[in-house]
Recover the amino acids of this structure.
């Protein structure tokens, strides 16, 4: 999905692979009564620029990101957060931070998302500094 060039053809090719695989995984988990106890997450590390670059691609855009979450007893059929209509505004509408998504997942797994671990060299490591997304739970 790192489409700095050839965005449209590249994404069509990748979506044709991801879509049936992702839906098959969800259907398989559901048929085995495992979907409610399994969280399935499909996410990138950042969004893509709203404007196509000269190489017919999109570059890194940290203002927004896309994510698909399924199962785990989470509420479905939701869209959380949004950018402005052009995707260029630096202040998203109803923002959802990645830390909040992680806190939500940890809470659903009954793991204390506020817990801090200590690395072997004594460095503190927060599991998440986010807040669970109540609309998703």
């Amino acid at each position: 999905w790192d489409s700095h060039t050839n965005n449209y053809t590249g994404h069509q090719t990748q979506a044709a692979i991801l879509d049936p695989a992702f839906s098959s995984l969800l259907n398989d988990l559901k048929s085995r009564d495992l979907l409610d106890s399994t969280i399935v997450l499909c996410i990138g590390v950042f969004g893509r620029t709203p404007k196509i670059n000269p190489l017919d691609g999109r570059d890194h855009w940290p203002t927004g990101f896309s994510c698909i979450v399924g199962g785990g007893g989470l509420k479905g059929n939701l869209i959380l957060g949004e950018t402005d209509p052009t995707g260029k505004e630096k202040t998203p509408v109803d923002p959802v931070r990645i830390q909040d998504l992680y806190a939500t997942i940890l809470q659903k797994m009954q793991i204390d998302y506020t817990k801090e671990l200590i690395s072997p060299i004594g460095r503190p490591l927060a599991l998440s500094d986010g807040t669970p997304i109540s609309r998703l739970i």
Observations:
- The chain has a mean pLDDT of 91.
- The chain has two helices and six strands.
- The longest strand covers residues 39-43.
- Helices lie at 7-31, 98-108.
